[in-house]
């Protein structure tokens, strides 16, 4: 079936907007969750400032389980939860819920790795000067890892773009849904090429922006 390119470009703009909304909202929510979980995973591990092995072991297991589930399966598996939260399992709003569940644990691991890269001597020096655990977290750990955290969030954002495209396979909206509806179901190669190029441009722009911000923060 021949595509009406005049109408299609309008659909492209709408789909791009949907993708940006999905990625933006899910990134904000999952970043808050991921940073919180990542910090807890670091400070509650053995020998750290708030050592609590039961909390660490339980949280570590939960994060591992959620990270083990492919996004497309996770999206289908939590449809009842998605319906409970947003009232539907189809469309842009419905895709945001599984995106948050998917990205939260992923960001938690990235944050954990960034914080573990900090020299333990810095934390020990803070404790020796009488810093409380909360002061150590907010004045030492997070500021020291800020440049690395920006790169981690950039990586997570790119992962969300890919996941949002996969959401199109089950009616999640955005560029992925457009590619499925036009490119796959109508066997239109040109449409697939356009959507792929747009996704590549979006990802490259995000990666370049993240690199620049991280580099400037590192110089400071």
TrEMBL record:
PANTHER family: ABC TRANSPORTER PERMEASE, TRANSPORTER, PERMEASE PROTEIN, PUTATIVE-RELATED
Pfam family, one: BPD_transp_1
Protein name (database record): Methionine ABC transporter permease
Keywords of this entry: Cell membrane, Membrane, Transmembrane, Transmembrane helix, Transport
Domain of life: Bacteria
Membrane-protein topology: Multi-pass membrane protein
Location relative to the cell: Cell membrane
InterPro entries noted in UniProt: AA_ABC_Transporter_Permease (IPR051322), MetI-like (IPR000515), MetI-like_sf (IPR035906)
Family recorded in the similarity comment: Belongs to the binding-protein-dependent transport system permease family.
Domain ABC transmembrane type-1: 16-208
Transmembrane stretches, start-end: 20-43, 55-79, 85-108, 149-171, 191-213
Classification via PROSITE patterns: ABC_TM1
The keyword Transmembrane helix is annotated on this UniProt entry: yes
Main location: membrane
Keyword Transmembrane helix: yes
Organism in which the protein naturally occurs: Fictibacillus fluitans
């Amino acid at each position: 079936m021949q595509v009406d390119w005049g109408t299609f470009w309008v659909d492209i703009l709408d789909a791009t907007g949907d993708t940006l909304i999905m990625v933006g909202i899910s990134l904000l929510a999952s970043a808050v969750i991921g940073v919180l979980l990542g910090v807890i995973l670091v400070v509650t591990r053995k020998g750290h400032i708030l050592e609590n092995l039961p909390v660490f072991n339980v949280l570590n297991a939960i994060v591992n389980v959620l990270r083990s589930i492919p996004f497309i399966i996770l999206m289908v598996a939590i449809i009842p939860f998605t319906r409970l939260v947003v009232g539907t399992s189809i469309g842009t709003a419905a895709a945001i819920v599984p995106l948050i569940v998917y990205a939260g644990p992923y960001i938690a691991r990235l944050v954990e790795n960034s914080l573990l890269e900090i020299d333990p001597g810095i934390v020990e020096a803070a404790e020796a000067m009488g810093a409380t655990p909360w002061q150590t977290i907010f004045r030492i750990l997070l500021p020291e890892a800020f440049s690395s955290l920006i790169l981690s969030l950039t990586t997570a954002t790119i992962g969300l773009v890919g996941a949002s495209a996969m959401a199109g396979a089950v009616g999640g909206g955005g560029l992925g849904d457009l590619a499925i509806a036009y490119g796959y179901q109508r066997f239109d190669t040109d449409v697939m090429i356009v959507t792929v190029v747009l996704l590549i441009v979006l990802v490259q722009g995000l990666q370049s922006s993240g690199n620049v911000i991280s580099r400037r923060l590192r110089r400071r």
